[in-house]
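Help! Submission page says 'invalid entity' but I think these are all valid:
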Amino acid sequence: MAGARVIPLHDPERDAARRSRHVEVVPEPEQQQSATPDWERRLTDLLSFARRRIAGDYQVDEFGFDRDLTENVLMPPLKPLYEKWFRVETIGLNNIPAAGGALIVANHSGTVPLDALMTSFGIASEHPAHRHMRMLGADLVFRTPVLGALARKSGQTLACNPDAERLLSSGELVGVWPEGFKGVGKPFKDRYKLQRFGRGGFVSAALKTGAPIIPCSIVGAEEIYPMIGDIKALARLLGFPYFPVTPFFPLLGPLGAIPLPSKWYIEFGEPIRTDVFGENAADDPMLVFNLTDQVRETIQQTLYRLLTQRRNVFLG
Amino acid sequence: MTPKVVLVTGVSRFLGGHLAARFAANPDIERVLGVDTEPPPRDLLRRMGRAEFVRADIRNPLISKVISTANVDTVVHASVTASPAGPTGRTVMKEMNVIGTMQLLAACQKSPKVQKLVVKSTSAVYGSSSRDPAVFTEDMGPKDLPSSGYAKDAVEVEGYVRGFGRRRPDVNVTTLRFTNFIGPRIDTVLTRYFALPVVPTVLGYDARVQLLHSEDALAVLERATLHDLPGVFNVGGDGVLLLSQAIRRAGRLNLPVPSGAVPTVGGFFRSARLVDFSPDQMRFLNWGRVIDTTLLKKEFGFTPRWTTQQAFDDYVSGRGLKPLIDPETIDAAERGILDAAARFR
């Protein structure tokens, strides 16, 4: 790129020139047209969205993913949380392919699985292809009313091999948090220590479909709700896997449910290829274990590296 | 092999009756026998043309005599049904479904002439729960089934059919697991449900619904009868509708009912003879069910003409369901707001 040169996006001179040219060429009424206020365009979008919803005129895929609803209703509220509250920085987004099946494997933490939401929002908004990550969730999510329906509509499905393989082979970007509740509900003293990675079901799904595994390390989510205790009896009563006690919850009531504004880093590592092991690789338990360990080690090492680079939990 | 003598069960209902009519219109088939406990409605009987109606109960051993004396070589068992004959018809329905199938299979096993058996089953055999994979393939089984109802009947029916297949390996057995039917002409629990002005749903749940146009269902049953295509096949239209979406497309209003109150509301609708939902169908309203139809397209060689959405729209327009809120009112409102906004600019 010998001829490359920096072109400022907002060059005052050029902008001025364009504006003056604009006035010269465009006749009076059309200029008014081009000055359609932003809010009016948004109103038009909103109304056409409302009309589509009332008429049921939208498409849902076989997993129940409602793209129209996700992009217009479910995603936007995450934006301030992502940009202003946690100030998430993504690293290595280029490791996520623009198309085709791939499996993102990440560490899970934070008492409330906000890390999954932030990762999903980060990819949808910052990746050049704006891909929707399809996450594999626990049975509990889908059993819960409202939450289960919302999870399906936002593209999530049950963590089981048939679903994972179906998504991967149809070229979707799949996200999995193999630590599950052991990871998200671990005490604060165990922060950034990866828990057991399930039974490696996600690796066999990737091997069967030949989809690359992208290790993903999330730093910052551990500190949003530092879990210092677990009321087991209450958890059993309510049917939750744990009932968290943080320095502020349930002490301050609903106020304690506000997450601490830690600074987040989400790093996507080099893809690990799974299509080089031959036909029946998924039936080789040793290979599955080794790959699981490799993914786990990569995430753990990246976590340690990111942590040493971080100077302050809240300022980064 | 084109069958010579075909016996169809359940001809007084939509599917069996229209199937018999299709066979009667096929000159390659010598004789068509339609069996049911009650005669088909007059217009259906007229459609059936040269097909002969035999008033017989398949729960009765008499059916064996019918099969052997008429030299039946192909049996289409289309009478397994989800809609009971009335508020008290559920025990009768179970008997017809399960005991009827047992008798019919016993009769088929006795007759050496029988070469082919086509069974209309249902995708309800996969059950419906939160722990199920999103899409069912033919090799999957239910996670947990209710202890009664249509789904259990269908599982038992399929069990007997498998047993028959083992004892008579020379007979080609085709089992078709259909999704719910929809269409302008067919009358099912679901078509009545969507025709209610206010449609009750379970609060906090939105089922994924896959449908099959009744004409596609007839075409699949016909193809299974005319060709040798043994095996178990899922049959459903492409694509999925969410329950809430379907209700909106039909222009109805959605009434979410808390799950605790669902049995009461269900009981009310049953006693008012509006819609009769069995417990397993109630669960279907929670989770829904989607099946994989790759095998149907690749091996069975049939691609449904209507997608789920098209079939549903055909049902809505065919039944003349008038939306509660006129779409033109919505359009007018949208234009009005935009005009008002333009004036404020």
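Support: the input was valid. A stray whitespace character was the problem, and the output above is from the cleaned input. The first helix of chain A runs from residue 12 to 25.
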